[in-house]
């Protein structure tokens, strides 16, 4: 039989922040998917996807 999980166990698990900390600002880095529309050689539009780690110190550069 499985161990019963209490509300306190659920609350502490939800409060724990996952991810890596930024060495400069100390904030947790959040993964964000950026999509860029680029023209191709044939004249159509090509979408390039890139996953970026965003924290407080680089969010202006990523979202600008």
Question: What report would you give on this structure?
Answer:
By secondary structure, the protein is an alpha+beta fold. The chain has one domain (18-63). Helices cover 22% and strands 31% of the residues. It has two helices and two strands. Strands 1-2 form a two-stranded antiparallel ribbon. A hairpin with a 5-residue loop joins strand 1 (30-39) and strand 2 (45-54). The longest helix has 9 residues, at 7-15. It is elongated and about 60 Å long. The protein starts with 6 loop residues before the first helix and ends with a helix. The model has no long low-confidence stretch (mean pLDDT 89).
Outline the fold blueprint:
Layout: H1 7-15, E1 30-39, E2 45-54, H2 59-63
Antiparallel strand pairs: 1-2
Give a brief description.
0% of the residues are buried.
Head-to-tail CA distance between termini: 52 Å
The overall average pLDDT, rounded, is 89
Number of helices: 2
Low-confidence stretches: none
So what's the overall shape? elongated
Helix and strand run: HEEH
Query: What's the arrangement of strands in the largest beta sheet?
Result: 1-2
What integer value in Å does the Rg equal? Answer: 19 Å
Helix-residue proportion:
10-25%
The biggest beta sheet, please?
2 strands, antiparallel
The fraction of residues in strands falls at 25-35%
| Content-based structural category | alpha+beta
Number of strands: 2
Number of domains: 1
**Oligomerization status of the protein chains:** single chain
């Amino acid at each position: 039989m499985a161990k019963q999980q209490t509300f306190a166990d659920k609350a502490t698990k939800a409060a724990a922040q996952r991810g890596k900390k930024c060495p400069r600002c100390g904030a947790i880095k959040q993964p964000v998917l950026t999509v860029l529309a680029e023209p191709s050689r044939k004249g159509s539009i090509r979408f390039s996807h890139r996953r970026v780690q965003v924290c407080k110190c680089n969010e202006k550069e990523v979202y600008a």
